Amino acid sequence: MTDHRIALIPGDGIGTEVLPPARQVLDAVGRRHGFGFSYTSYDDWSCERYLREGAMMPEDGLDQLRDKDAILLGAVGYPGVPDHVSLWGLLIPIRRGFRQYVNLRPIRVFEGIDSPVRGATAGAVDFVVVRENVEGEYSEIGGRLNRGFPEEMAVQEAVFTRAGVTRLLDYAFDLAERRGGRLTSATKSNGIVHTMPFWDELVAERGAAHPRVVWEQEHVDALAAKFVLDPARFDVVVASNLFGDILSDLAAAVAGSVGVAPAANLNPERTHPSMFEPVHGSAPDIAGRGIANPLGAISSAAMMLDHLGHPEAARDVTDAIAAILAGTDLRTPDLGGTASTAEFTDKLLELL
Ligand code: NAI
Ligand code: MG
């Protein structure tokens, strides 16, 4: 029996409430398919630790994770700790240190979930946002000058490298070849006159190398409108770090709730562990009440199964999710129901 070594980082708030259900699902589906997991849980890596010790994780944190096959993360963020501290103290070092340059965010409208968007019907909306995950607009380059004076200023540089953009685009075009053969690139080369024309040039270059994919580009503002007006037209959407972040949250809302959306931070070369996490954050407004929707975390675990070479097991999980949504009225409050996280998870395990 293969044992996959999994690092669990629950983090803060509802992160600690959605990871145990994901683990139960993994164990159940593993038993059925004849593989297992050995978990190492890093319960302490959180904002509480930051408040106590001044760091979200220990100094050798990445080294502790390095030999794992994958990382499953809940969410980080806690009122009183600035969001850039929790993000740059844990998530971003893992994404960058482990070369997880692809952030994959699939969007699917399930039967049984009412999308706030009229045209977003089950089956019709099924696309994936491929977000650049280690460079772009989220850079450390820049600074602040003249703090406290009237001429105070801040400068933030975006970094786009040929190597970094090309490898992301190749991943996205390859994915489009395996899916519906269509790709949309998010740009803003009318307003951002250096990095975005460079991005567009590289898209055209990689598009020429993938002749079976029909591709187009859209300015990100117009694209945002089309996500709402006509979400069924998309297959693979490729975007820079910032644009992909915004577009994928919007897309998750189109799918019905940010609580159901999964994400993968992939190191495609597999020289480092990849990380799987729900799109949502720590939701301090509902944390501690046992009502968080575990589907985002569970779908992320399904993406992890896929990555670990168990596509049939991953399909079992997504089939069970589709079945509970289409065949029962059981819903957590974010989807208009009254079920607790535990009640919902128990039913899902039964269907599995
Ligand atoms: P959020 O995703 O935590 O919450 C937004 C809204 O969606 C809230 O009303 C929340 O109750 C609801 N929600 C989110 N996930 C849910 C779930 N699974 N079930 C039911 N309802 C759910 O985003 P917000 O409020 O912007 O951020 C809260 C904290 O989380 C901040 O500290 C932020 O920095 C952090 N955050 C962390 C992320 C991560 O760890 N990857 C991602 C996004 C935010
Ligand atoms: Mg986001």
UniProtKB/TrEMBL annotation:
Catalysed reactions, as listed in the record: (R)-malate + NAD(+) = pyruvate + CO2 + NADH
Gene Ontology molecular functions: tartrate dehydrogenase activity
Pfam families per record: Iso_dh
Enzyme superclass (EC): oxidoreductase
Superkingdom of origin organism: Bacteria
Keywords, alphabetical: Manganese, Metal-binding, NAD, Oxidoreductase
EC number per UniProt: 1.1.1.83
Domain Isopropylmalate dehydrogenase-like positions: 5-348
InterPro entries attached to this UniProt entry: ICDH/IPMDH, IsoCit/isopropylmalate_DH_CS, IsoPropMal-DH-like_dom, TTC_DH
Cofactor(s) required for function per UniProt: Mn(2+); Mg(2+)
Keyword hit for GTP-binding: no
NCBIfam families with a match to the protein in the record: TTC
Family classification: Belongs to the isocitrate and isopropylmalate dehydrogenases family.
Name this polypeptide is given: D-malate dehydrogenase (decarboxylating)
UniProt source species: Streptomyces millisiae
UniProt lineage: Bacteria, Bacillati, Actinomycetota, Actinomycetes, Kitasatosporales
